[in-house]
């Protein structure tokens, strides 16, 4: 992979070099606990979208292993984020949202959905 190659081209090249399909990658990701839809993988390869969320970026690290490319070979080629707000590189560094869960006396946790509104 060349140094100036964008993420979609690098991903497509890595797939071709390894000789595997998106379906194969999808199945291996599911087996390893990183479920990314086949459509999302296709969008990443075509450049329609790129991994943005922490879970997608975790999956991309697994994809690098599956495709036998050096660590960071794909991750480092991501373009600027297309999503508003911060882009997290590691899930365990993500701050916990206030009110995301509530502990009960029995030790169970009830997850509540929070609605966040941003004004610009």
Protein described:
With 120 residues, the chain is mainly α. The protein has one domain (1-120). Helix content is 37%, strand content 5%. The protein has helices at 7-18, 22-31, 38-46, 54-66, and strands at 101-103, 109-111. A two-stranded antiparallel sheet has the order 1-2. A hairpin with a 5-residue loop joins strand 1 (101-103) and strand 2 (109-111). The N and C termini lie far apart (40 Å).
Summary of the model, kept short:
By secondary structure, the chain is mainly alpha-helical. The protein has helices at 7-18, 22-31, 38-46, 54-66, and strands at 101-103, 109-111. It has a two-stranded antiparallel ribbon.
């Amino acid at each position: 992979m060349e140094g100036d190659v964008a993420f979609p081209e690098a991903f497509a090249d890595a797939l071709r070099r390894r000789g595997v399909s998106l379906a194969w990658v999808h199945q291996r990701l599911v087996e390893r606990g990183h479920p990314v839809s086949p459509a999302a993988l296709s969008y990443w390869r075509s450049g329609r979208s790129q991994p943005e969320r922490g879970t997608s970026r975790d999956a991309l690290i697994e994809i690098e292993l599956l495709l036998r490319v050096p660590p960071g070979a794909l991750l480092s080629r991501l373009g600027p984020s297309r999503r508003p707000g911060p882009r997290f590189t590691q899930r365990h560094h993500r701050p916990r949202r206030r009110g995301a869960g509530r502990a009960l006396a029995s030790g169970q946790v009830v997850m509540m959905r929070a609605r966040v509104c941003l004004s610009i």
